[in-house]
Amino acid sequence: MAVNLQKLLELMDAKDKKNLEDLGGVVGLAQNLGSDVQGGLKGTSEQDLDNRRQQYGENKMERKPPPTITELFLEAMQDTTIVILLVAAAVSITVGVIICLVHLGTSCKRKPLWDVGKSAATVAGEEGPCIEWVEGLAVLMACLIVGSITALNNYKKELQFRALQSKQDDSRVTVWRSGSIAQVPVNEICVGDVVQLDTGAKIPADGVLIKCSDLKVDESSLTGEAVPVNKNCEEKPFMLSGCAVVEGDARYLVTAVGKNSEWGKIMSELDTERPDTPLQVKLAIVAENIGKLGLAVAVICFVAQTIIWLATMAKPTCFKVEGNATTKTEECDMTEAGCALMGYTWTSPYSNFNAGIQMNKLIGFFIDSVTIIVVAIPEGLPLA
After folding, report:
1. How many separate helices (H) and strands (E) can be counted in the chain?
2. I want to staple 205 with a disulfide (CB 3.0 to 4.6 A). Which of 10, 99, 257, 318 is the partner?
3. Distance between CA 201 and CA 173 in Å, rounded?
4. Any bridge partners for residue 67, and if so which?
5. Rounded to whole angstroms, what are the CA distances from 19 to 3, 14, 26, 260, 369?
6. What per-residue confidence (pLDDT) applies to 76?
7. Taking the C-alpha atoms of 79, 83, 86 and 88 in order, what is their torsion angle to the nearest 10 degrees?
8. Are 107 and 330 in contact (CB under 8 A)?
9. What's the first-to-final CA gap in the chain, in angstroms?
């Protein structure tokens, strides 16, 4: 085999008829590849074909192993929105558990700041099971469900895509080997094979025309041009893999397979990390700016809610001391007169501040602010 792989790659990269003539034309090229334009490959034993594949490559692409469902789940959980919700859930659960384990008394439901009723006390909160941690747990479960569903959907898509690729690899083409016609799988085509193509057939590998009749090829998958290209042995003899025959029939000599073919080079580029396009960069900037605006609004809302909460804390209510407790308990249903009659203290919650109880209200404000950040960015914008 006088023609090495490098010469064949240079021939197909240039697509210059003069380079083909320098190699003796298609007839001379076939001879140098141990083939014949009429009878096809001469050495067709398994050993000969294996040696040929080792020298010129196989007609198959090296595909990355599919990601596992665990990897897809971890990838889904790295979404910015999910991370924000997970942090909020963790804080809410932690504070809620602490409040439940270290019971420091009960707190009244405060009236709004603008309430000018006669009594500053409010309706007493009913005692019941401590569920301060439930809201954070609900957020956590929602994140896990979203991550699981996303991972499962992506995994199913990956399996379907792999199955489609396997069916394409199992398709057969007509070749000439040792003077006889044979049907071989696409993956088993070798450099030097003579392939027969009819209307509607997909070109399985790069090559050079031997003969054709009214041949038109759709090269839109490579060039984007929707108009079929007229092929002939005199001016346009080069056949490119991944294209389809839309009219006529042809016989051609295979010169490049697998990752060395035109289609293989494109697929190799798709498997590698590519920089973002200008549109993706602009969309990322827009999403970032919207996120910053949402964060600013969330901070303003959190501060406003905190200020209103602190102001309502200034309203006095009735407190009593039980035993040797260092923290007083609010008697929400007592008026000022009733409080004095019972010998309790009529004062504002500031004087008997219960950090464990009041912290839960701050967590509620925090959850509200996180919600604003989450809904600020349109879901489709980062995915565009």
Report:
1. 13, 10
2. 257
3. 9
4. none
5. 13, 8, 11, 18, 68
6. 86
7. -130
8. yes
9. 50
The per-residue b/e assignment along 243-257, b for 16 or more CB within 10 angstroms, e otherwise, is bbbeebebbbbbbbb
Q: Note the helical H segments in 188-249.
A: 220-223
CA angle 178, 13, 184 (to 5 degrees): 30
For 198, the 3-state DSSP assignment is: coil
* Short-list 278, 269, 206, CA closest to 242: 206
Amino acid identity, position 101: L
State the DSSP string of 328-359. Answer: -EEETT--HHHHHHHT-EEE-GGGG--HHHHH
Mean pLDDT, 10 residues at a time, over the chain (384 residues)? 82 89 91 91 88 90 83 87 81 75 56 44 49 80 89 89 74 90 91 93 93 92 86 91 92 93 80 67 79 86 88 77 58 77 76 63 78 66 42
DSSP three-state, residue 209: strand
Quick one: CA torsion of 139, 141, 146, 148, rounded to 10 degrees? 160
Contact between 164 and 7 under an 8 Å Cβ cutoff? The reply is no
Which residues are registered as beta bridge partners of 254?
Answer: 207
Considering only CA atoms, give the Rg of the chain: 37
Q: Which of 124, 127, 126, 138 is nearest to 96 (CA)?
A: 138
d(CA 78, CA 146) in angstroms, rounded, equals 12
Question: What are the two backbone dihedrals, phi and then psi, of residue 345, each rounded to the nearest 5 degrees?
Answer: -105, 130
- Name the nearest CA neighbour of 338 among 118, 128, 127, 105: 118
Contact 238, 217 (CB under 8 A): no
Q: How far apart are CA 145 and CA 139, in angstroms?
A: 10
